[in-house]
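call fold(seq) -> tokens
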Amino acid sequence: MKRYIIRARALATDNEPLEDKLIVINGKRIESILPSTSASRFGSRDFVGARRYLVFPGLVDLHCHGGGGIDPTSLGGLLASTYYHAAQGTTALMLSQFFSGYDELARMAEVVRKARLSAPVRLLGIHLEGPFLNPDARGAIPKEFLKPPRMADVTQILKTLGDELKIVTVAPELPGAEEAIKAFAAAGIIVSLGHSLATAEQAHAAVEWGARMVTHLGNGMRPFHQREPGLVGATLAEERLTAEIIGDGEHLAPETLSMFVRAKVGDLILVSDCRWIAGMPEGSHVEAQGEKLEIKQGAARHEDGALAGGIHPVWRGVATVGALPGFSIWKAAHLASHNPAKLLGIRGLGRIMVGGRADLVLAGPDFSVRRVFFGGEEIFRSSDEPPLLV
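ret:
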């Protein structure tokens, strides 16, 4: 097995970054973390590049519909999307899927299973966004993809997606939501509240039924009001809820983003909510299935002007949140690595640790992604970085 040595100007930990370290990769894992003074123990050919990097854990994106300008619903399309996100530091990804019928769900579960065998990132499963969402808070989701909660549908969803289903978004105010949330939670599925006009009281009730998460906090839900804070206020007050935020600088105002981060930093997860159009230039684009979207001034929109999801990988959120007053890039990376791994309960994911997998993002002093490693293999290298010596 090839051994690589990374010079780290600083590397992310669970607390403050460690400075002037060497990270020794042996095979798929981190063999050791040493002081920079140990460099003389290794040959020059073992080192990754000549510069010192800012080193972060591979990012974990729990809400991603695709990217790279290609339909992700085929095997080739999904793999292309994972390569697009890998080049921006994402090494673990949950595919978010709208409900469009059981045959399509079954097909996508099989696509994910097949893609997992050769994807450059860890495919974590499926986040089902619907069908039990409030039509009046559906955002970019087609109305025909929605239906009220019924136990027959819950049972069919669980049967169709099987072990691939990890997260499901439900609007808790809908009739039948209580039974649906309880059934999903009993099956070990993380229930996320979203696309909802729920009151704070209804949101708190959903937590008692077993909900653990909130989908893109502040988007697709009742606006905050001082006497009826809705799902937003309930989320900020409820310690048992972990919340996603889209930190791209487009979906939330800087003041809102700062408020959410300050109020809930330990239980906040940065996500991309990327759609297929992510990575495309400004202008109108048509997806293979016929959806037409336009990228204008840094955001994707439908023809009616409504936001159509994200177009920036989760690294953009890390940089945006890291620039907030009183925050840092290191704390921001925690929201896109350690926190999602903690929610999923996957040991070793989203952390840099001796014996752990070498899933790493190497950034320059300007925080641009220079190299990405997945399981000790370099899956992305910036064009001005030298290749690894073998």
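The domain at 59-344 is CATH 3.20.20.140 (TIM Barrel).
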